[in-house]
Amino acid sequence: MPDSHYTDVRALHLFEAMDAGSFETLMRGSYVQNFPPQIELITEGEPSDFLHVVLSGAVDLFASWNGRETSMATVRPISTFILAATIKDAPYLMSARTLEKSRIALIPSQDVRAVFDTDNAFARAMVTELAHCYRSVVKAQKDLKLRSSLERLANYLLRQQARAGGAADFALNFEKRRLAAVLGMSPENLSRAFKGLKAYGVQVDGTQVTIRDPEDLARLAKPSPLIDDPTL
Amino acid sequence: MPDSHYTDVRALHLFEAMDAGSFETLMRGSYVQNFPPQIELITEGEPSDFLHVVLSGAVDLFASWNGRETSMATVRPISTFILAATIKDAPYLMSARTLEKSRIALIPSQDVRAVFDTDNAFARAMVTELAHCYRSVVKAQKDLKLRSSLERLANYLLRQQARAGGAADFALNFEKRRLAAVLGMSPENLSRAFKGLKAYGVQVDGTQVTIRDPEDLARLAKPSPLIDDPTL
DNA sequence: TGGCGGAGTTGACATGAATCAAGTTTCACA
DNA sequence: TGTGAAACTTGATTCATGTCAACTCCGCCA
Description:
Two copies of one chain form a homodimer. Chain A is an alpha+beta fold. Helices cover about 45% and strands about 25% of the residues of chain A. In chain A, the strands form three sheets. A four-stranded antiparallel β-sheet of chain A has the order 1-8-3-6. Chain A has a four-stranded antiparallel β-sheet with strand order 2-7-4-5, covered by helices on one side. In chain A, strand 10 (about 200-205) and strand 11 (about 210) form a beta hairpin. The longest helix of chain A has 27 residues, at about 120-145. The two termini of chain A are about 35 Å apart.
């Protein structure tokens, strides 16, 4: 990994408090790579050789069984994934693929485990990171199990709007079939869901979305910080 | 907490490597309590005052939104729950209730955070525990999203059989309506699912289950270690 | 011992969402 | 600027599950 990337990675919460020597050890064996969209980065069941860090772009974590497949979570910068598998030295439970063009740091798992054993600050940062991952999955599961597809879309749009700075109109950052997968529904159903949201003042033109009356949409969406607040 | 409980708690992986003084600090403020079935221990949204440890019995983690409720995971001895909320000092994302008569240790969250800051062995143990919790939720989510209710029941029975030592017949440890909630289906549907499993050699008499031909049942259930192995 | 009540079952029906099969629009590229 | 492929939409149908209501079974105890 060229030195220019060191500072980017070092800025991540997971790495910022750790000892300089430990950090150097991790970086020596690691590298950063750019991936195009739709590349499968890891496959469930395989041993966890690398800790992955999404520096930019987005990664979809998904799982398969008996010929079926489902999206589990979306990882956005800047965070790690498969940290749990790495630290337990256990096989991946999920597969991962890039949703967009993404820049990803790969750090050998054995180095991570070695540094974890010696660097206390790193061990502590890892707790915070794992707790965050855990809570993200829980929130995603609540979104999925408690809401209908229409409600999931409504809340997704409100979250996107907030992320985009609160403007009445903003762009979807996925193509629609991808968004459907992320929201756990078929593309056909997403189409119908968008149509259903017209009644709540949502206009869609390609990837451009306009929310006429956020209050109205929120009455349907009923957003809850315990599901929708990414900082919690 | 009477001294007699100290050894039980100390035996847990999370607490076994930590400094004796730190352990003493945690135990001083904590207590063990027996709860009858169906008691709500914590409610989502509340601040995380205590780290809970299930010593015996079983606890259901569930979540609600907009009048709906869903079971998220079942916690069995010996493990903790809401560790992530405790360490982040963030509100609970899930509620918890006892499924059976349960013995639960309650450790003040602020003590846990204080000891976490000073005891390196404890911080490391916490990483393992959190990684385990994370992977448990992921497995539960896979079970739920990828399998039909019939398949979930079939796999549940095979897991129970393994837990009971592999004998052809064993007892369900829940009453059926409770089992239905755990498996994420209505009691009516569970009834139908059991009937559907007759064709695969499953006999049910009250809470007593007999699996005539595990091979046959496994052909339907298609158990996968990446979902069903509790040690992974 | 009769009858009350709760768990469990069963059948009829409603609903949400996936699937299938056409269409239609969009857009890159010749 | 035309054309083909891919993305998207739409309608019809199917499937899994939940819901509602009736009914059985069984134990308990007045």
